[in-house]
Write a structure and sequence with these properties.
It is a single chain. With about 100 residues, the chain is α+β, with helices and mostly antiparallel strands. The protein has one domain: Alpha-Beta Complex (Aspartate Aminotransferase, domain 1), CATH 3.90.1150.30. Helix content is about 30%, strand content about 30%. The chain contains three helices and six strands; from the N terminus they run ββββαββαα. Strands 1-2-3-4-6-5 form a six-stranded antiparallel beta sheet. A hairpin with a 2-residue loop joins strand 1 and strand 2. The longest helix has 15 residues. The chain is globular, with a radius of gyration of 13 Å. The model has no long low-confidence stretch (mean pLDDT about 90).
């Protein structure tokens, strides 16, 4: 993973990705394959207009959205952007400095 201090952990039977202690992505929502993320509030309305984005049952109450993905038919570029936004939403300042400095 290219995100500073990011770890993968199993929580409640699902694969989660964390920046330190805070989750920024969760894989799996019930019976359908999906990845949960924390969206940018300005992008939220446009994301909800998509057929492949939905409000997940539990995490949706906390502002999370989910993107349906299939291994052979996912929108991987969009997913990468959404995960990046989600990481940046929960990351500490030192993590963001390390991330932005890594690309320089």
């Amino acid at each position: 993973m290219s995100y500073p201090e990011a770890v993968e952990a199993i929580s409640h039977g699902r694969c989660t990705f964390r920046a330190g202690k805070r989750q920024f992505a969760i894989v799996g929502v019930g019976p359908e394959p999906a990845v949960l993320f924390i969206p940018d509030e300005l992008e939220r309305p446009a994301l909800l207009e998509r057929d492949d984005v939905f409000v997940p049952p539990y995490e949706g109450a906390y502002g999370w959205l989910a993107l349906r993905v299939e291994p052979d038919a996912g929108d991987w570029e969009l997913l990468a952007e959404l995960i990046d936004t989600s990481y940046r939403h929960v990351a500490l300042q030192r993590q963001l400095r390390a991330l932005d400095g890594a690309g320089a």
